[in-house]
Amino acid sequence: MELVDFNALDREAAEAALRPALDVPRWSDALVAGRPYAAVADLLDAARTAAHPLTDAELDRALSHHPMIGRRAEGDSAEATLSRGEQAGLGDADDAVRADLERANLEYQERFGHVFLIRAAGRSLPEILSEARRRLTNPPEDERREVAEQLRQIAVLRLEGMLA
Q1: Which domains, and CATH codes, for the chain?
Q2: What residues form the membrane-spanning segments (predicted)?
């Protein structure tokens, strides 16, 4: 979709277009209300600003659309399609790295009560595993801030890709 097309959508269609990037109604409301945007960079700046801060309820809502890293997202939703594309770029890793990542994912879920979330774009599986291990040592309040930052990065990348 071109920026001019996004600017021209009715409110409901514009909110629906944004939902796969970040399913936080307050965020999409702010972006839709800010139209028209003169440039994609303006929309991306607005997206970063509107996603800061994210409340705990917004984090939980957004996290519900993300599969465990390293696992293929199921279904045909826009979110699942985007996730599969993002994780496809992770490349191959040996079985030991994949098994270690699976264990780290499960340990993370047990510790924090939700999936380990990280912007996969531009990262390798060994790098993601290293980050999972590091973040397992975070206090819960620090980890919530990291998760929110990862969600912002993912949302902006998805939005940028939608408008490319």
Answers
A1: 3-162 (1.10.3330.10)
A2: none
In single-letter form, the type of residue at position 36 comes to P
Q: Which of 75, 132, 77, 121 is nearest to 99 (CA)?
A: 132
Q: Summarize pLDDT for 18-54 with one digit per residue, the tens.
A: 999 999 999 999 999 999 999 999 999 999 999 999 9
Contact 44/159 with Cβ under 8 angstroms?
Answer: yes
Tokens of 23: 């399913």
Would you call 115 helix, strand, or coil by DSSP? coil
